[in-house]
Every structure is written in C-alpha cells, then in structure tokens.
Description:
The structure is a single chain. By secondary structure, the chain is α+β, with helices and mostly antiparallel strands. 33% of the residues lie in helices and 22% in strands. The protein has helices at 53-73, 89-93, 110-125, and strands spanning 26-36, 42-52, 75-77, 83-85. The strands form 2 sheets. It has a two-stranded antiparallel ribbon. The longest helix has 21 residues, at 53-73. It is elongated and about 70 Å long.
Amino acid sequence: MYDPRNPSSYPDHTVVIKYVPNAGDSKKAIDEYNSEIFMGGEHSFVCYNVCEDSLLAAGVIIDLIVLSELMTRIRYKRTESDWQKLEGVVSFLGYLTKAPESKGPVINSLTRQRTCIENLIRVLVGLPL
C-alpha cells in the first residue's frame, strides 16, 4: 500500500491512458516503457501497434462459444435421482469477458478465473484438483 512517508512504497510504474478518437475497427496503441539502467542511465522502449479489433476478438469469441456450449451439457446429482443443470455459468465465462453479470459469485481475478475453469474441467474428466 502506498505511504507518502515511505519511499519504498512508491509505485514502481505509472500508466497513462490518453483519449484517441474513434478509429473504427482499427485499434492503434503506442506503448512506451522507460527504465533506469546502469550508472543512472535511462532506457526507453517504444512500440507502435495497429490491429483490427474484430480479428483479435474472433479467437476469444470462438472460445466463448465452445465453453458456453460445454457448460450447457453439464449435469450433476444432488441426490440419487435428482439431476440438475449447472448454475452460475456466467461466473466461469468471466475469464473471457470484461464484466459478466451474474446472480452468483463473480471472481474478478484473471488467474483465479482461469484456475476455476481448469479445476472444473479436471473434475469433469475425473482428475484431481
């Protein structure tokens, strides 16, 4: 946690996001990384990136469809004859979306979201967590 009286708690990096007018499907990004090097020198690395938003999203959309379809197939038993659908599916899909709306608990941590999906698939195929 940041404490202005303690220099060792100062942020180790700064993020600046500037508004850029709508560029349609093309997304443009300029990333600049500055660091201190030997004997107080400075190093700057600048990367200019142009990409098509819909093409970048296509792979994520395919994964979202496959995972959603898998979730519709999951049934479990609470009692000997009581089969039920898996509820809270949106919570699992949060790994592939920004902010899923869900009635159940939503995990907002990329690593924990991925672990959640991996553990569910492990259980489905009978592997230990």
